[in-house]
Predict the structure.
Amino acid sequence: MTDRPRWFTETKPGHSEWYIERFRTMAREGADLEGEARLVDAMVPPGSRILDAGCGPGRVGGALHRRGHTVVGVDVDPALIEAAATDQPGPRWVVGDLATIDLASLGEEPFDLAVVPGNVMVFLAPGSERTVLGRLGACVRHGGRIVIGYRREDTYPYDRFDDDIAATGLRLEHRFSTWGLDPFTDKSDFAVSVLRVR
C-alpha cells in the first residue's frame, strides 16, 4: 500500500496543468460549472462555513464564496491550489492531504458542511478512503453534513464506500445519481451521497 494519492500515481505528467486549463476553457466558453455549488448552497443557511475537500482549481469553493459562504479549500496538489488562488480569489486555499487534515492543522473552527466533488474519492491513496471519511467527519460540526460525488469505479465501489461510512460513524441520508438530484439506481454510474455527522 502507498500513501501517495492516485492523483499523482495514476495520471500522466502534465495532468494537473491539463485539468486546470480544461476548466478555464469551459468557464470561458460559458459552461455551467456551478451545479455542485447550487446544491450545497441550498443545504445550508446563508453565511455558512464550508470545507471544499479536494478543491482542485477552486470552481466549487469559488462559487460558494460568491454566494456569501466562508470557504476553505484543501487539495494535495500545489498546482491546483495555485490555480484556485489565481482564478477564485476570496476563499482560503490550503495545500493538504485529506488523509491527515484536521481542524488544528487548519487553525479553523468546525465547518457546517464539507463538499467533496470532482471524483476526489477515486483519486485518494489506495486504502485511505475510510481514514479520509473519518477526518472529514471530525472537521464538520455535529449535525452537519458531508456531500460526496464520484463516479462508479472498481477502485472504490459503492458497497465499500457504504461500509466505510458506517465504520466512521457517519450516516447516509440521501443518494442521488447527479448533482441535480436525479434518482440513484443500481445502474447509475455516478453517486452523490449526503452524509450526516453524528
Remarks:
- The chain has a mean pLDDT of 96.
- The chain has eight helices and seven strands.
- The CA atoms of residues 103 and 139 lie 6 Å apart.
